Fold this sequence. Notes:
The chain has a single domain (4-244), classed as PPM-type phosphatase domain (Phosphatase 2c, domain 1, 4-Layer Sandwich), CATH 3.60.40.10. 33% of the residues lie in helices and 28% in strands.
Amino acid sequence: MAIAIDACAAQHQGDRREQQDRVAILPHPRSRGVALAVVADGMGGHTGGALAAEQVIHTARNNLEHFAPSEESAHWLLENSMREAHTMIKASRFMNEKDPHSTAVMLLLQPGKLSWGYCGDSRFYAYRGRQLLTRTVDHSYVEHLVAQGKITAAQALTHPNRNILVTSLGGQDEPLFTFGETADLQPGDSFMLCSDGVWGYFDEAELGAALADNTARGACETIIEQARRRAAGGGDNLSLAVIRLLKPAAPAR
């Protein structure tokens, strides 16, 4: 089945002094229908987080340029991009005397297949129309508590330790990666990658409505506008990438 793609990446600095998120949608330089979307949320003091997030984008772009879809797996591309970024961020500690870290979430779109991987609490969402198909589970302290049944998902949203991660790129410990894949793609499917500065202001139904009722650009504008309003002057950096699958337009007679 032929599918058209509507995509957009967007950012807002929020109420922070610096934009430490990075986001990109990168088309494969040689393979039609192959694209990599990336969101990275940097942490680590003034400029340190921004440099870490920038390293994630740089590594992903470089690996995509050398990726051979017919010979190499999506899992290989995603894992190596995150693992190499981790190594480079960790090495940068010795050069700039900072403590840089970054989350990463990546989506690789290929004809008839979608793959994703992540480290930290930047998220991937998949919807069919307004229905949530799946979302990633954060590598965070509160999600660990939710999984153990010690707190509810609603309590996690306001837990005082909700921003504590159990893994990230650039830390002393080896990072934790989680991956997913689907070959069930249909027109009307929407996918979103975002930093916690976005998802922290919405429930899953609200995000599904924004994605289903708008173009990719319109969804980005709507989500950022609502997040900024709800932040009430105390908002984090916001970064998101939206990819919507559409029926191709009928050729003109």
